[in-house]
Each structure stands twice: as structure tokens, then as C-alpha cells.
Amino acid sequence: MQDKEFDRLLRITRLRVSDEERARIKSDVEQVIAYFDDISLAEAHGEPAHHPVEVPGRLREDNVSAFADIDGLKKGSKTNNGYIVGPKL
């Protein structure tokens, strides 16, 4: 993992680390990525499992309802054309 990629990862996760922690965490992340690379090389046999474990029961119905205090929510937030604006990553 290049330093530029790792810096972006730290920024996105909003982590502030010391130089010692940085080296250790970068090493850990590289080991995780290497592990996933090894997994991706494994050959799969048969049909892909969309749900490896059967989930009993039904999902709940979606109930759409209007938010009661949208103006109060917008009052404390930055907005653009009536939409609430989140932070840039």
C-alpha cells in the first residue's frame, strides 16, 4: 500500500495516529489486503451462495412516513437547494 493510499484511508476513517502507530497499522492493513488477495485466488466450485445460511422468517414491511420536524433538522445543518449537505470525504 502506497503512502498516498494509506493517508487517504486515515483521512476517511478520521484517525489520527503517531508515527509508531502509523507503521504498525499500515503493516496490519497490508496483511489484511494480502489475506484477501490469497482468498481471491482460491477456486470456487459449484453455484455461488447468495445466502450461505438460510434465514427463516419474513422481512418486515417498509412503512414510509414523513419526518415530523424537517425544518428543525435543517436548522442545525448546512443545506443546498433544500437538501442537507454531509461532509466531503
Features:
single chain; 89 residues; mainly alpha; two-stranded antiparallel ribbon; 3 helices; 45% helix; 4% strand; flat
Shape: flat
Q: What is the topology, as strand order, of the major beta sheet?
A: 1-2
Oligomer: single chain
Structural class: mainly alpha
Query: Given the structure, what is the number of helices?
Result: 3
| Percent helix | 40-55%
Low-confidence stretches: none
Polypeptide structure, described:
- With 89 residues, the chain is mainly alpha-helical.
- It has a domain at 3-41.
- It is built from 3 helices and 2 strands, in the order H-H-H-E-E.
- The chain has helices at residues 3-13, 19-41, 70-75; strands at 79-80, 83-84.
- It has a two-stranded antiparallel ribbon with strand order 1-2.
- The radius of gyration is 22 Å and the shape is flat.
- It starts with a helix and ends in a 5-residue tail after the last strand.
In short:
The protein is mainly alpha-helical. It has helices at residues 3-13, 19-41, 70-75; strands at 79-80, 83-84.
Task: Write the topology of this structure.
Elements: H1 3-13, H2 19-41, H3 70-75, E1 79-80, E2 83-84
Antiparallel strand pairs: 1-2
